[in-house]
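seq:
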Amino acid sequence: MELLKNKVALITGSGGGIGEGVARYFVKQGASVVVSELNEGLGERVAEDLRALGGNAVFVKTDVSSKASIGNAIEAAAREFGGLDVLVNNAFAPTPNVLFEEKTDEMLEQTLGTTVWAAWWAMREAMPLMKKRGGGSIINFYSIDTEIGAWLHADYNTAKSAILGLTRSAASEWGRFNIRVNAIAPTAMGATFHKLAAERPGFAEMSASMRPLGRCGEPEDDIGPVVAFLASEMARFVTGEALHVDGGLHLPGYNSRPANVLPREY
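struct:
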């Protein structure tokens, strides 16, 4: 069964990691995919791989911190594939992992620009195309980090909290256009995971042990199906939802306090 047959999807940050995994699963479910990615080499490679899988895919270089660049990517979906049915807001540009008091205004501005503003612009650009096609599905990426107040991520936590508010606001208002808007909080073995695993012996095993399911997620096989479900007609009565896709990590949560930070400082 092809859940996304005849659907056109744009996935930001799909040049690697979770975004690439979602894109691969989407084409296997029959979707035509716009690979919206800043890195040209990565974006072209993914688009080529998707076509090798038998899918329809095109790469569009996209800087999600630029309203004009996002608009160009949305226009490409209409130009190349005739419209847009699914928008996945996955991309963001990370800042250094430092304590809140060391985070700068520029770091917050970068994070907001590549998450909140990026989703805001993309959603508003996508809405007319989805409305024209009788509806659509938007999936925004949220994070467990906001729920546990993850250390060293103050700007990221702030932005992802805003993403949840944006998701629910759009779900409330755009239901009248049959546009569904949901959020997922995924954890999987993406680029950041593999970097940490290479730098810290035992990280992968420790990460798996924290989850009730006892393993870490695969971008394509574990995250992709959930995003595809939300994008498909199977989820036609689901909107305004925030769904954890993390092997149960949200149940115990996790301690993110750096080892070198004292419990009490004056």
